[in-house]
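=== Given protein ===
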Amino acid sequence: MLIGELSRRTGVNAHQLRYYESQGLLVAERGANGYRDYDETAVLRVRQIRHLLGAGLSSEDIAYLLPCAVGVTPDLPGCHELLTAMRSRLARLEEQMDKLTRSRDALVGYIEAAERSGEDSYPPLEGRESVPA
């Protein structure tokens, strides 16, 4: 099937499909006319890629995991190498979430402090003597 058909059947635009191919996640044969030609397994493969991307995995992680993927969801066998890769990604996600939580908490603190100050003008030091830095 041509890229337009694969796009229609998966709901993934052609640009993304070409990106998946450039990352080694999707394989297409080239016809004599140079057009990409995908076989039926490409539909399943794209759905697997979308699920794994939705889990926060990078295209590099997916390239590593995809050969072992089974089914649409996909299911992954519990071998040591795959578990190590997924745990590593989980640790990176947790670090990002912690950083975002700290940023959120700091911002909430600044907002609460500004609301308590009761100042209605901006900048707050306007009309006051400046303090040397």
Notes: The CA atoms of residues 42 and 119 lie 60 Å apart. The mean pLDDT is 86.
